[in-house]
Amino acid sequence: MILKNIEKICLFSLLVLLSSSCTTIPSHPKAEKHDTALVMFGDTRIDPYYWLSYRDSQKVIDYILAENTYTYAVMESTLELQKRLVSEMRSRKRGDDITVPVFMNGYYYYIKYEEGKEYPINCRRKGSMNAPEEIILDENEVAAGHRYCQIASIDISPDNNYMAYGVDTIGRRYFTIYFKDLATGRLLEHKIENTTGEVAWTKDSRFVFYTFKDSLLRPSAVYRHDILQPYEDKLVFSKKDNTFRTHVFTTKSNDYIIISTSNGVSSECWYLNSKTPLGNFKLIASRKNGFEYSVDHSGKYFYFLTNYKAKNFRVLRAPTYNPNLKNWQEIIPADSSVLILTMEAFKNHLVTTERRDALTKVKVTNLQTLEQHYIDFGEDVYIALPSINPEYNTNLFYYFYTSLTTPGSTCEYNMTTRKIRLIKQNEVLGGFDPSNYESKRIWATASDGAKIPISMVYKKGIEFSKETPLLLYGYGAYGYSINTTFDPNLVSLLDRGVVYAIAHVRGGQEMGRHWYEQGKLLNKKNTFTDFIACAEKLIADGYTSSDMLIAHGSSAGGMLMGAVANMRPDLFKAIVAEVPFVDVLTTMLDSSKTLTTVEYNEWGNPNDSTCYFYIKSYSPYDQVKRQKYPNMLITAGFNDNQVQYYEPVKWAAKLRENNTGDSEILLWVDMGLGHSQSSGRYAQLNDDAFIYAYMLKQWGITD
For the Peptidase S9A N-terminal domain, which residue ranges apply (predicted)? Predict the structure, then answer.
């Protein structure tokens, strides 16, 4: 029954998109109310829309259908604008393009795109880019017949004869691993389902290790798979603690297989010599609460990026024959003003990425002399990050740098001679000229005195006033920093006079590890008040007004949108919340839901009364109240198993019930997607155009 319902909605959506006109806008849907009492610690919450979580209910499907009908009718006047936006964004893209070739184990690997095709084509050439091209995986063929298709990883065996790759064609992030014989081009008969989509090959190219995902989407166990005897996989590691995620990978040196497990505040790693795949993994250092570390390998040493006696992390190393914690020796000390983000070991060098005052730097350490230096970019670059560097025995390091106004460039850096060579600058077509735009950084003051950075980009010559349309984006969770990278699609807003701003609120790590810790668990409300402070700063300094300010966030950033909508609805003309995590308390109380237990160290475990009442005090769904809300566009994916579709659906219904103003609450549920946008590069433009058109309509911009 449910399959037919989904097909019904997908067909409806297609007909809607193809229709030419709608004579009248129907009344907005009104969800039925059926009270469900949720009781904990003597506290009773009444959820009148709990029934919308019954995924197989025909009534639920019909309600979603009605919501989509209503949203389409409201947005129908923007269809021509959406078409223009798609045309503009597509005109800036090269239809045919090729990535920078990456050398690995005797081959140059690269991705090419062909005009009119949605997905990349993965290729390689042996020894030289002048050698014959070998197409190893055409993702357009994999995606044929599917609306969504994501390839998790492409992993080549050490002998270069086999390829493993993970595929998800639903959007629920369960990947099926396939194996391909690169000599014959044929797929092997066996496949592995319910995985992360990545494998770690052993030196003999016969075995792979992979991570199994359980019913809660948690990477929970590691298995060994024999491609010659493929039907008897061996469990080699299982983490019973349901707050931990587990992953397995091969070091860049290809000498060791590493199992890493973490719950966000503590971690453990095990190692195995890749020449002995049937051996037992050995523990490096036991987990302790608050002790985190990751591991890489070069030569005689394991290298550790760790917060051991270092809040902002430091780098240590220990001999491979005895890597116990007592043998760790420091090579890069901790710095209270610098957060070490990443570490990458080569045969002769170690590269670390650091963040200081929301800007990034790249440091190179000579592993023989331990001499250290920073890559000199020659200018103030807003973001510089490692590119793809799979080759171990090399002195060349590839990095990517960009800014809000400048398309990204890939550069080659010789770690020995310290020479930089520009390999490729991403081309933006359609007459784009970066000199027509400028960016700046300002600082807002939070309610507790913290200084919150705001990054801004806009077209030169703009005169800021109360009439200036401004889009403020925020996220603030998991320690994920919002990098100031160039987005060619954003040009369609900038050219229409829109100012784009990023609020680097606490919960990310832009200002260091403390920035993250001050925006999680029992400090979570700082994320929300920081965003409000940023909005107030932009208004107070005359960049915009509440009548022209739109807030935007997705996923955990959607939680941010829900919180600020409840706390300061008067600040915003409109709010766009994509796949928002808004029913926080109910979800975090249900350990049968995907990812609940592994998120305890981010939001808190509400089975503890202190956490329960703190989460309740900000959970957007629980805090909806009778007041005037701004215009809102809320999106969901029916296949989403990270933020279940019913959270935004219930939230929209409750907002509409309690809204005392005349603002519009719109909901769009995509029945064919999960937590992410469309997977095809052109289909993604339709998603962006829909969101942009909604925003432009709110600002009164029609061209």
Answer: 29-425
